[in-house]
Design brief:
Elements (H helix, E strand, L loop, with lengths): L5 E2 L7 E4 L5 H12 L4 E5 L2 E10 L1 E4 L4 E4 L8 H11 L6 E9 L5 E4 L5 E9 L3 E7 L11 E5 L4 E4 L1 H5 L1 E5 L6 E9 L7
Antiparallel strand pairs: 1-2, 2-12, 3-4, 4-7, 5-6, 7-14, 8-13, 9-12, 9-14, 10-11, 10-13
């Protein structure tokens, strides 16, 4: 089955969004696999976030700012990797990291750009919708006038690359229901990193 990318006219350049990327059956199966994983509390610079995570393929350390080999990607996620790679137009092997995240009710992602070693960022929202927000990276302290808010529905796929990846930060609003996400990232070559 082929899906068309919808370049969201109100989103930053390089952000693409595909609603209903997964079927309900695919979503149910992925959530079942996620619930069998041992998720750990997410720690960032000494603080523990409300969300829980499991990382596969490669691991990025916020303390050392380095990428290292991580746990093998579970086979249950291989069909999803292939499907995302085909949609984005890259080799499945280029998706070096699979990050599983569980967001309890009320949790958020604060403003950030993904770690420098990563290139294309793709994500699938499961179990509930969320609101994605973008703001230009060079306007961090200039107020809220440049914030773009976009609904991201469950079972959808979003892609952050090019200017949306390098020149914009993103965050999420508090979720109303438990949400899971699967983030798949490519690695940049050492010469292309910030």
């Amino acid at each position: 089955m082929s899906f068309l990318f919808a370049e969201m006219s109100q989103g930053p350049p390089g952000f693409t969004y595909t609603p209903d990327f997964l079927t309900m059956a695919e979503e149910t199966e992925l959530i079942r696999h996620i619930k069998n994983l041992e998720l750990q509390s997410f720690r960032f610079q000494g603080f523990e976030a409300k969300r829980k995570v499991a990382s596969f393929g490669v691991d990025y350390s916020f303390d050392t700012r380095a990428v290292k080999k991580g746990n093998p990607i579970p086979k249950a996620f291989h069909p999803l990797i292939s499907k995302v790679a085909a949609q984005v137009g890259i080799q499945a092997s280029a998706l070096a990291e699979v990050l599983i995240t569980e967001y309890p009710i009320g949790s958020v992602i604060n403003w950030h750009r993904d770690a420098p070693p990563f290139g294309v960022i793709t994500g699938i929202s499961l179990a509930s919708d969320c609101i994605f927000k973008f703001r230009p990276h060079d306007e961090i302290n200039r107020g809220r006038r440049s914030v773009i808010s976009l609904p991201v529905a469950r079972r959808s796929l979003y892609v952050i690359k090019d200017a949306a990846r390098s020149a914009w930060q993103h965050s999420t609003a508090p979720v109303r229901d438990v949400r899971y996400s699967i983030t798949l990232r490519t690695l940049l070559s050492r010469n292309d990193r910030d």
